[in-house]
What we know:
There is one protein chain. The protein is α+β, with helices and mostly antiparallel strands. The chain is built from 2 helices and 6 strands, in the order ββββαββα. The chain has helices spanning 42-52, 69-79; strands at 4-6, 14-16, 19-23, 30-32, 55-58, 63-67. It has a 3-stranded antiparallel β-sheet with strand order 1-5-6. A 3-stranded antiparallel β-sheet has the order 2-3-4, covered by helices on one side. The longest helix has 11 residues, at 42-52. The model has no long low-confidence stretch (mean pLDDT 84).
Amino acid sequence: xxxxxxxxxxxxxxxxxxxxxxxxxxxxxxxxxxxxxxxxxxxxxxxxxxxxxxxxxxxxxxxxxxxxxxxxxxxxxxxxxxxxxxxx
Length: 88
C-alpha cells in the first residue's frame, strides 16, 4: 500500500464559537484556536496546523481529508511494517 500525504486545505478549517477548529477524521481528536478568528485568519491557523503536522492522507483504498499528527505517525508505521517470513 502506498500513502500520499498532502497538506490539508482551507476548506477543512471549521469555525466553532468564533474560533478556527480542526477535527481528525480518524480518531476524532480536535484542536481549536486559542484566539478568535477576528485576531487570527483561517490561513494563519492552516499554516500553524501544517507546522504541527495535520495532514490529508490518500491511498489506493481510502482518502482521509483531515488527520492529526498522532494518526499520521500511526499510518506511517503501518506502511513500513514488513511481513514476517513464514517457515516452510
